[in-house]
Write a structure and sequence with these properties.
Elements (H helix, E strand, L loop, with lengths): L2 H14 L4 H20 L11 H13 L4 H20 L26 H9 L6 H16 L3 H5 L6 E2 L4 E5 L5 E5 L2 H13 L25 H14 L8 H14 L4 H8 L4 H4 L7 H11 L6
Antiparallel strand pairs: 1-2, 2-3
Helix pairs in contact: 1-2, 2-4, 6-8, 6-10
Length: 300
């Protein structure tokens, strides 16, 4: 009964909302969970017949499966998206998910590195090897630009505007943004391209990818993970570190330095400012020193 609606929803997400394949699949998985629930409970209803009570029973069922509050919220978000589509396409007269409440979630503060820790990690790179020169350019670029790992491995030479101090990044949903790039990153990208990359074989179709593996293809997400884990271990850093840690650190250092959240949001490619606000987890000493410096009640 629901298959035509699923196909229509998929087309809507792809064409109307221009979402990435990954995001479209996530929405469809959320909808699949709802239809599984309807089948298990013998609830033979079309989307137009679904009521708020039905969705509340569904969310209770999802909760009893043992999913985290974050996972439950993600599923509810997907269901809301589907019923909004139904209203837009006049499949339903009303949106039964409008008053559907998501479980309260506690936003986990991401691990981040101090500037000194980042320098210590980068210092572990063996620059006498071709991989070392490439990895130096990779880490400098990650920290300088706050890139997602997917954005990094798909970075193209044609998207480098180093003479202007910018790179063009293709983010989630194939959305483009211009991100400033620091002088150190520009320097080591230049060294990598002029002295290392030119010596490597090139696989057809990968000529424009900036960072390549020894086979002439772009690097995998897993490879970036291993590079960073290995360097962090050599640096004696025991924090739970991943490629995303460099992005967290980039954002945290900007916010702690007083950068405007809107500017950080633009550089990170966040759709919502609330996503960026997670980086306001400033340490208490920093907060106290700021209050002492600027707040009249704290001044002696």
């Amino acid at each position: 009964m629901w298959e035509p609606f699923k196909k229509g929803f998929k087309a809507y997400l792809q064409l109307e909302r221009s979402l990435s394949e990954h995001s479209v699949e996530a929405y469809l998985r959320d909808l699949e969970k709802l239809t599984q629930f309807l089948e298990l409970t013998n609830m033979h209803k079309s989307p137009a017949e679904i009521q708020l009570k039905d969705l509340q029973d569904f969310t209770k069922w999802v909760s009893e499966l043992g999913m985290t509050a974050t996972s439950q919220s993600r599923i509810i978000s997907g269901i809301r998206g589907f019923f909004q589509y139904c209203v837009t396409e006049k499949i339903s007269d009303q949106n039964p998910s409008f008053l559907l409440e998501a479980p309260k979630t506690i936003r986990a503060l991401p691990d981040f590195l101090s500037f000194e820790e980042i320098e210590l990690i980068i210092a572990q790179i063996n620059l006498s090897t071709p991989d070392g020169g490439r990895n130096k350019a990779i880490l400098e670029t990650m920290y300088s630009c706050g890139l997602r790992v997917t954005e990094l491995i798909n970075l193209k030479i044609s998207c480098l505007y180093t003479d202007l101090g910018f790179i063009k990044v293709i983010g989630k949903g194939d959305k483009e943004r211009l991100v400033p790039i620091g002088s150190d990153a520009i320097k080591y990208i230049g060294i990598y391209r002029e002295h290392i990359r030119v010596q490597q074989p090139l696989k057809r179709g990968f000529e424009d990818f900036l960072f390549l593996n020894k086979h002439g293809r772009n690097l995998s997400r897993v490879m970036i993970f291993y590079i960073i884990k290995d360097l962090a271990q050599k640096a004696g850093i025991t924090k739970n570190i991943s490629p995303h840690t460099f992005r967290h650190s980039f954002a945290t250092h900007l916010v702690e330095g007083g950068a405007d959240l809107r500017a950080v949001q633009e550089m990170l490619g966040h759709e919502s400012i609330t996503t960026t606000e997670i980086y306001t987890h400033l340490d208490r000493n920093y907060l106290r020193s700021t209050l002492q410096q600027f707040h009249p009640a704290f001044k002696k």
